[in-house]
Amino acid sequence: MIIGEQRLSENNYYGETSNQLDGLKRKINTENESRNVNNSYSGRPGIFKNFSSNKMHFVESLTAETYSTYQNSDQIHQDGDQSYINLTVLTPTLIQYDKVTIGCRPEEESEHFNQINITKFQENNEISLKSKPKDEKYEVKNYQQSDNLEDNEDKNLSWLFNFKLDEIANLSPEIKRKRSSHQHHQNHQVENHNHSYYQNNNSNNSTLQQNQNDENNIQRTLKDPCIEDDLNVAENIIICNTPPTFTLHTPKKPPFTYTELIEYALEDKGELTVSGIYQWISDRFPYYKSNDDRWKNSVRHNLSINPHFRKGNKAKAGAGHLWKISSRESEANFLAWEHKKQRLDLFFKMEAANQLKVQNSLHRKVDDETNLNKHSEYVCSQNYDAELNAATASIIKLPLETCSPIIAKYVDTDSPVSSQYYQFQEILPTSQHQQTDELRKTAGEILNGVRRNVEVQIMHPSDLQSYSILNTEDYLNPISKEEIMQESGLGRRHDEFYLIDPTIVNGSEEPTEVFEIFHEDFNLNYFGNNMIA
DNA sequence: CCGTGTTTACTGGCGA
DNA sequence: TCGCCAGTAAACACGG
Which nucleotides on chain C have any atom < 7 A from a protein Cβ? Predict the structure, then answer.
């Protein structure tokens, strides 16, 4: 039974589906207990490629029936004593790769990675994870590309290796592929910084954790003879059972360039010193809480090279000058700022959303572990579906203990903004009678600029009410092209754009004298650098 | 010395 | 392949 689908990306750090997945795992565990399911190919959630729609689907479990289904559809094949599910992969937030199972570097031999198959580890397999999270062990194997080349981009998973795996939490920090010791050191710095931030800058904790990490790393290095094997893609990546904590402890780099961050700061405050810009940024983005000077160097670099930023008078106190945006007072800049502000607001809303979901997920996990012991009979799929739907649809009101103050202001659940955001977050179909697939963009995709057409959807929204979701195709550019045209004094006839009489901007009249200037492919990036001159 | 500001060089990603 | 862009690193100068 397909219960949902999920964009497959390491950028899923917003944890859109953590609730579903938690519920999924509960469901599977309880079902396995009640049915006494054997270990062959059941009891584990997966994400399965749907060839017809090019989407990844969550599958509740691979039972004998679903196994048979996949077998009949040639998505399962035998290789010796093992069966493999073709084109099956778990989202990187749930499964990570063991170093031994991937034999060559994708960037060098990517043609060999056109199929990735996941099967359970053999219990007696000498290949074992250094850290065994219970029995959840998977093996990732690579296969030669099949003869069938259709839909190569989506069917093969070679793009999976384009992920910046080193950004995934719990990834072994001893990865040294093509990394200088300097970079290695920097990564440690970042990890330290991230932990320390979320631990209220408790340097003792941070140091302790780092020491533990170091010890683990040393142990791994000693135990593992392949540690320096440059052919390994992602060594010792441990299955992560708790993606929510990952999102809690590793603030990801915000999807804004340094130029944008500086713009935000200067637009917000008018003019700031360099240190003021540092402060503005770090106050709002935990990622930049670090004391290291690398990002600050980049900020200064951007201030210097970007003519958009002007150095003003000397600051009254302290060293340096006051910086401002050169065209801040212009009307165009005002409009641009309105747009940028929307984008920034949306970012914080999504961050707040994520924080809530993380809290919810953790809360539920504790509750469910307790309830699971008490109610082993809780295996009814209807109950499960209801619970899953409820988990997905629920609007939680939990205190945010770890989020930044900026994000916290967006989680006032009584505010209209908040309710709007919740509607946005739920990512549910607008109609329970909807028969066709309806795709929604995920926060991660939006904010990281990912352009993969696989998105979150609940496919059994039986008990869910309809929500009004933002229907614009691009949440970060919510102003319609028509609106932009009108404000820009552009007219449109068929697929052509025209300059029109500036007095005719309400769109009610046909332009009396027009000349073609743009076609449909014209980039109406109204607020960007490509703004119409 | 340190924060600030400028400049150069390099790298990786991406699109043409 | 090339150019552009963003990010990063680093050298250097300046001034309090």
Answer: 6-11, 15-16
